[in-house]
Every structure is written in structure tokens, then in C-alpha cells.
Amino acid sequence: MTPTETSRFVRLRVELVVEIADPEAVTGAAMQRIADDAAVRGDDMARSEREHAESAVQEDEAEALAYLVDPYDLVSEVPGVELAQASWSSERIDYDPDSPDWDLDEEDDAEHVTEGADGR
After folding, report:
1. CA distances from 107 to 93, 101, 110 (A)
2. What pTM was computed for the model?
3. Contact between 91 and 60 (Cβ < 8 Å)
4. How far is Cα 18 from Cα 43, in angstroms, rounded to an integer?
5. C-alpha distances out from residue 36 to 1, 26, 28, 29, Å
6. Residue 50, Cβ neighbours under 10 Å: how many?
7. Which of 8, 55, 62, 93 is the most exposed place for a label (fewest CB within 10 A)?
8. How far is CA 74 from CA 43, 51, 57, 106, in A?
9. Averaged pLDDT for residues 22-35
């Protein structure tokens, strides 16, 4: 492909593992964000939508974290970049930093070896 035929769209994959050290702080921040969103959106944020969001973040810190993380924030300050589409989720996991299952570089190395082996 020539540079003019190359797509301008890039898929950026980011995987994070975070420890929630203060669940009340995360839940409180999510509840505040919901209240702020409701105030800004006014009637656009239906009461049922707000109640559903509040219930979800109060029941599960992973949901609260997902409500607080905004992919737009990751790229909004990058010059020349506009967010075209984003999706994200959160889930509770069993995490052992010493386990070889959590070696994120291993996956990257395998991709680079495969790409380099056939010259593409």
C-alpha cells in the first residue's frame, strides 16, 4: 500500500490491571460523576438511567471504575488525533504478578516474532 492508500485509523489496545485500594473512594467518585453528569445533561439523563448507574456502581467497584475511566481522556490531548470509536469494560480477576500467565510482554514478543518471520 502506498501512503495515500494506508488507512488513517489505528486500533490502540491497552490492557491495565489495577488494584482498588480504597473501594469507598472509587464508589464515591463514581457516584459524584453520575450526579455531575445528571446535572449537566438535565432531562437528557433519565431518572431510570441514573438509578441504574448508581445501583451498578454501588454494587461493584469494577463497575464504578468503568464509569470513571473515559477512553476520550487518553487521547483528547494528543495533537492531530480524534477519537473515532471506543469501548471498554472492567471485570474482577484473580491476579498473581508472579504467574507466567500475566507476562504481557510474552504476547507482544510472539506477535513480533510471527510478523518478522514472514517479512510482514
Report:
1. 19, 10, 5
2. 0.69
3. no
4. 34
5. 47, 15, 12, 10
6. 15
7. 8
8. 28, 27, 22, 25
9. 96
Q: C-alpha 6: how far from its chain's center? A: 27
**Are 61 and 23 in contact, with CB atoms under 8 Å apart?**
yes
The one-letter code for the residue type at 9 is F
Q: Where residue 34 falls among pLDDT bands split at 50, 70, 90?
A: very high
Closest CA to 66 of 38, 27, 119, 111: 27
Q: Where are the domains of the chain?
A: 23-82+91-117
- DSSP letters of the chain? --TTTS-S------------S-HHHHHHHHHHHHHHHHHHHGGGS-HHHHHHHHHHHHH-HHHHHHHH--HHHHHTTSTT----------------TTSGGG-HHHHHHHHHHHHHHTT-
* CA distances for 102 relative to 5, 16, 19, 94, angstroms: 37, 11, 15, 10
